[in-house]
Amino acid sequence: MSFLRASSPHAHSALTTARVMQWVLLATLPGLAALTVFFGIGSLINIALACIFALLFEAAVLKLRKRNALIYLRDCSALVTAVLLGLALPPYCPWWVVMLGVFFAIVVAKHLFGGLGYNPFNPAMVGYVALLISFPVEMTQWAAPSTLSNASASFPPIVESLTHVFSHDTLDGYTAATPLEVLKLREGLTLDTLYTNEAIFNQARWAGVGWEWVNIGFLIGGIFLLYKRVFTWHAPVAMLATLTLCSFLFYDAGGSQSAGSPLFHLLSGGTMLGAFFILTDPVSSAVSNKGRLIFGGLAGVIIFVIRVWGIYPDAIAFAVLLMNFAAPFIDYYTVPRTYGHNRAHRVTKIKE
Amino acid sequence: MRKIWDIHGGVHPPENKIQSNQKPIGVMPLPDWVSLPLNQHVGAPARPLVKVGDHVKTAQLIADAEGFVSAPVHASLSGKVVAIENRPIPHASGMQAPCIVIESDGEDTWTELQPCENYMDLQAEILLEKVRSAGIAGLGGAGFPTAVKLQPDANKKIDTLILNGTECEPYITADDVLMREQANDIIAGAQLMAKLLDNPRILIGVEDNKPEAIKALTDAAQNTAIEIISFPTKYPSGGEKQLIQILTGKEVKSGTLPSEIGIVLQNVGTAVAAFQAIKDGIPLIERVTTVVGRSLQIQRNVHVRLGTPIQHLLSQHGFDENNCARIIIGGPMMGYTVDSISVPVIKTTNCVLVPSEDEMPTPPPTQPCIRCGHCADACPANLLPQQLYWYSQAQDFEKLQAHHLMDCIECGACSYVCPSAIPLVQYYRASKGAIRQQQIDKQKSDRARLRFEAHKERVEKAEAEKEAKRAARKKAAEEARKKIDLTKSQPAEKSDTAKLDPVAAAMAKAANTKADPADEKAKIERNLESARNRLARFNHQLNDARNENDEARAGKLEPKIKQTELKISELENKLAQMAKT
Amino acid sequence: MSENTEIQTSTQNNETTVDYKELTLNGLWKNNPALVQLLGLCPLLAVTGSVVNAMGLGLATMLVLMGSNIAVSLIRHAVTDAVRLPAFVMIIASFTTCTELLMQALTYELYQILGIFIPLIVTNCAILGRADAFASRNKVLPSAVDGFMMGLGFMFVLLAIGAIREIIGAGTLFADMQLLFGASAENWKITLFGDNYPGFLIAVLPPGAFLVAGLLIALKNIIDAQIQARAAKLKAKTVKGSKRVRTTGQIA
To answer: In this complex, do C251 and B395 lie within 8 Å of one another by their Cβ atoms?
Structure first.
């Protein structure tokens, strides 16, 4: 009778990678619901397409790498990347935009670097940025919130949505500028005037109709993930805190030079999605809790800088990618103090 | 209420203690034979005092401690020594080690013991010697010789003695039932140890999942100054460094022992063993072991004689081999597996866990690390396990040491929480071994380098001396030659100079002698002879080659033949010339 | 052909007799400056946005490479170790300047498009590398052939990357060839995806160049691996005896 030889520990907690990924997917549902209510089924189509393409590409690459696709697909990581990319892309964008984005995210940013756990950059953001600089027109055509559209229906009916996605017709009646774009191009109006003039603001409560609820939805999802201890609070809270602080500093009492109120920055664009879903991607972020504070904090600063003084209206993707660059460097300097040592020291110097 | 601190991290695995802590400690029939390894402790193996064929009695000393950090071994039953050889031992490597195997005679005759009623009146040195000669080692699992631990450096003042009744690992309840049944012995043992350490304060730490044990200890310690402290259950609070942190808030400096900060920590079982060794004179031949797992019919704690093969222990509890997934010595978090049930119970065997397949299923396949950081949150030593894992895979020893790999206590909390089911602790163990081997190799090569450099120096010095001697001789010869040249015009004094300096004379003779013409001629004739033979051989080979139409070989032979013919003609010319002169 | 079976047989002056077939193979495939030696990546990634740019720079580089190889080979015995490298760089710089002036005279628009990358040919490590590793140790004719082959290999890679980037980025092939070949080349342009092709901008920007170059290197490695696998299959299989199993070593 031969007994199994294994190494300790022999007990294991019930947590698996697939379970963690499934909770992340679950947490996107409130935000996704808000997107659907306010902007129609465009995001749902994006996510569906992205998921299909992601599974196909991932299976193909796994086969090229001579791995058992069925086992490795089961950890749902490709699905999470696809969903995050689908949420970040403008609703109703053409199908080939989604396909190319997923290709860049899964094949180039993830598998060419070694697969799950080896990518130094956030795959969804790499896909997004590749699309943003390649197809500026398609990537900046955002749908209007349902209450604002000029066309007959509140948002495009299903058939029309699908035809737009799969052919290349324009969706003129249904597009509008996002709140961030409106703020950026306001040409010296004070915030109060802007809020009274623009429909996208005067119908909203805090930060632009539709978009504020989307952000609140993602905030709810993020709090759920914090409760489930999928990640620690350090990175998201640091990013939101520095973003708030920066916008506070440059608020200028809502004058013509103001950069926007803190509440506006927190609840517009991709702030909450970025804070709780993009920035917390464990593979490409810093390793220790102190490191995550710095990681999130600097990301918040970069987001604010690009939003206010850069040429792009929203900056989550660029900020996250820049901080992914810096993460190993941050790791060297934020090793926590080990039990039995006097103080934490840098890993670049080895003390015996 | 005494203040307690908390450790960083920690996990809460299911306790699984209820299977074995409901019954009192049981007793078992003696086995047919015992196998006592010579090394059941940290330090040098003991040296056997008996030979094969000797008859020994229970509690008889059969192997003596070898060196300072060592412990003796006593026979755990009476019988005949049938072997002193390599036998399976309970170790993760599955290797064998020297053991003394005693076949029981069924009688269990004890040797004469030396109890001591008024032990508290004895001097500390005598008590220490009794503890040492009783073979007491740390029964919590580490096996450090207790006498060494109770004898810290003279310049270290011990202010706290901590008894470890935590037993944080799931399944194990040996200390729990011991504290319930033998609380008085524990308190007495604590006071005994305190006497040896110059009376520090005494603390006993117990997790709060053992309410009966806490009550028993508190009752037993009623009229003493011993404090019983309970704290929230968390794994791995029972580790030495962790318990010290919980009870005193102090941290043991990396790479040092707790005695550096004035603390000595002992397991409650060790305290009982030390007490029994001194009061009743019983050396360490028995211990309490938890036998647990769903492949058994009876799960409980039992007094086991050391050296009992696991087979006997398990068969006494209704072991079903076919239902058993693995045999674990120790608990599920830090225990190691063995593959043979003939390994014996030794001083550090606190638990034998034999789970069934559904109780402890085969681990799932490992997936890539997603750097989620749950491991860093769980690590009690506040390390970064995910970084240690990456550098361990890359065999980057410098980075591993910079991340303090050596401070890892191998508790297994990180692997327990890992969502990708990575066996982290195994990587660290392998890397620690590689680093240690690297250090040993470096030491060896350093020593070899020093030896080589010394050797080189010696050789150079010898060379220099030889050179000096040669130079001196040469100078003397020069002077002698000068003298000879002078005396050439005065040949009468030749013999005198020859006597004066034989070396110079010999050298002078050699310089003046011409080659003997006869010798020269003989030499040339010999060369000529061999050249002619060579030519004949080559010609023969050439004929063979031509007959076989081997053009390549013929081509190679022809220049050789030409060369030999030239040589022959040269030698013949020389001879002719010599004949002329 | 028996004297060409060995690539290098030592003769009296420590110079080597060369196999031209081997030179060609090295320059074009086995030791390709762009795909294997990874030299000259700066022009490779910067000016390969279209086929005409790539061809222009490729021809210029080939010209400089051949010229400098010949010149270095001619003076190889006269130059001492101390001034070797500065002398080589001066030679390369002179040829680069000549090429630049030629381009300025004959293909002015292309010269303006390529801009600073023509004078930057002097920093192309492939040229100095060949001068030092080959031309300074071999006779004139082999050095000239080596320069030609290395330059040709480099140009082929430039053309490949340029073609791919042009097709993906702009949807055309051989656009603007009149800048190099005169007015008659205007109708060489092939539009592959129709006039409404939006163009995958990232292919024309530097990141796309890195990606395409990387994929080409991967393709070359795949082809090499398959050639090796096929050659290994043809070799006789070794007899399998009992092998000892390693029980020590690292945990994988």
So the answer is: no
